[in-house]
Design goal:
Layout: E1 4-9, E2 25-34, E3 40-49, H1 53-61, E4 70-75, E5 80-86, H2 88-92, H3 101-107, E6 112-115, H4 118-133, E7 139-141, E8 146-150, H5 155-158, H6 161-170
Parallel strand pairs: 4-6
Antiparallel strand pairs: 1-2, 2-3, 3-8, 4-5, 7-8
Amino acid sequence: MKYISLEYHLKQSYISPCDDSILNSQTYKRTKEPTKKGGDMNRTILHSDCNCFYASVELLHHPELRGKPVAVGGNPEARHGIVLTADYTAKRYGVKTGMALWQAKQICPDIIFLPARMDLYLRFSKMAQEIYSEYTDKVEPFGIDESWLDVSESAGIKGEGYSIAKEISER
């Protein structure tokens, strides 16, 4: 029994909330896996990852901060905490997820720290899940900002996996 997996990482620059939308990367994965009866069954699995998720959602609510280095994390006044996520501007300075706030401030003196608002991120995560449900009922969330979508049975209605991935990314 063979399991063959082909992955195509779509390198196009999808628009993220940092740039006005929610999704910014997709992985298109076609698999050929054996069935119980010995035949092959083609599967199309998409991996959706909303990059810079917390920061991207915050930038939707604070458009005046676009183009400035932004990170969501602990409390800089209390001098503790870590970066939960940073936008692409902050990442260009070298700010990384898990970095102590004081370290992020050292390498990016103009960084703006925002407190985490999980209720807001959960709301946007639910919105993304609702989009996915328009393409398949076989969705496996992987954290708040990632999901695996089996769109194998959607091809006849919504198109091939690659076009579905592009369409979701554009939404």
